[in-house]
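Record 1 of the preview.
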Amino acid sequence: MARQPKVVLVTGASSGIGRATADLLAREGHRVFGTSRDGKGSPGAPYAMVPLELASDESVRACVDTVLAEAGRIDVLFNNAGFGVAGAAEETTLEQAQAQMEVFLFGIHRMVRAVLPGMRAQRSGQIINMSSSAATMAVPFGALYSAGKYAMAGYTESLRREVLAFGI
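->
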């Protein structure tokens, strides 16, 4: 039985795992929208790129509105965007901590809030939050990264239990 193509939104698709995932899904026939801060990706990529700044409610809304206007729905959200703050905990700044949480927790929360009403209305969807082994085993000199991934894991588990009855 052939799998139905999905509309997939991949954050952080300009490089690394996000780009590889977006490339693979597009080659498999899915309609993929990738994001980066400037909306640019690899030349010749088989998917559209949309600008997204996870720290901005307006940017998140504009990104999701663009995908909905072009594709009519979002079936899969892959929250992949991220970065790591490395260094001794006592030497990292509050600003670095806030920036880490902005991406790993608040950015994911913004994206979920933006796509969930549509998924709930269609009674289907998938939200994937890219985690790390640092979410279960903290790494030295990675306190902020580990804390962000721990927060993401807790958020994801709670969200899973909330939306399961909606087919998400």
